[in-house]
Here is the input.
Amino acid sequence: MADYIHDITELIPQGPPFIMVDKLLYSDGHLTCTSFRITPGNPLVEEGRLSAAGLMENMAQTAAAGAGYEARAINVGVKPGYIISVKDLNIRALPEIEAELMTEITITARVADIIVISGKTTCRGEVIATGELKILTSV
Here is the structure.
């Protein structure tokens, strides 16, 4: 279970304005949940809606927040990660500015420096995006 973390940037390697998560809601090493409110200045907003790239990055940063939470627990620094593969990405809707997203990722595999996650993002109780990402966690 995650403790309340006041500043999400303590857990993720990204910095403003490229932050696609606001709050870590839960993390147990396998499942991580975050929330994110879309703001007008977000660099991945196009025509008033978060882009598909923004939804994908939100899933990746949810995984990063979980990894950062684990790193913090053992007192090591947050490491960058890189999306290396996307599979079965299904975008059902692009959320508008001011919408709040709830994203959960499940780690489905770990092989050396690669983690595979399954992600699901909801907005107003509706699933708007699902997919699988492979993330390289060390370079």
Notes: The first strand starts at residue 23 and ends at 27.
